[in-house]
Amino acid sequence: MRKTLTLTLLVLLFLSGCNLNNSNEVNNFDLKNRCATQAQSFLQNERANDITVNVINDQFAYNSTLNTCLVYFEVVEQGAGTTYNIFDLLTNKKLYTHVEYLDSNTQKWWDESCKESNGCFVKKEDFTAKFNNLFK
């Protein structure tokens, strides 16, 4: 009787563990799916906000470590430059940015006002390292 009870408990524990894994996979898929929907809506709004700029190279990903949906996109303004952005859609805040102006005086002004503590990176390689860490 004791062996049967022990065996039954082991089988139940094993089966409940299997159900947890399936549940986590479904939940993870649902989070990724919601992220995709939110990101597409966000990017559509970004494109509609200003017709004088182009939103390009957009990417999005659910980041399970941060438990949020991240969006990367570049904004190209003809004759001015390019802004590289990483947004957190859960908080609707820009996390990181890097700007490359065509005009050297404007670039110098931007570089002097850019503070890494505010998520602004003067060097593109620093921004790229942050991007690679978040979108791995």
Record the SSE blueprint.
Elements (H helix, E strand, L loop, with lengths): L1 H48 L3 E11 L4 E10 L3 E8 L4 E9 L2 H10 L10 H11 L2
Antiparallel strand pairs: 1-2, 2-3, 3-4
What does this 3D model show about the protein?
The protein is of the alpha+beta class. It has one domain (2-134). Helix content is 51%, strand content 28%. It contains 3 helices and 4 strands, in the order αββββαα. It has helices at residues 2-49, 104-113, 124-134, and strands at 53-63, 68-77, 81-88, 93-101. It has a 4-stranded antiparallel sheet, with helices on both faces. The longest helix is centred in the first third of the chain and has 48 residues, at 2-49. The relative contact order is 0.10.
The major pleated sheet works out as: 4 strands, antiparallel
Name the overall outline: globular
The helix tally amounts to: 3
As a percent range, the share of strand residues is 25-35%
**What strand order characterises the main sheet?**
1-2-3-4
Number of domains: 1
Share of helix, binned:
40-55%
- Class derived from helix and strand content: alpha+beta
Beginning-to-end CA distance, first to last residue: 52 Å
| Uncertain regions spanning at least 5 consecutive residues | 4-21
Q: SSE order, as H and E?
A: HEEEEHH
Number of E strands: 4
Average pLDDT: 85
Radius of gyration: 22 Å
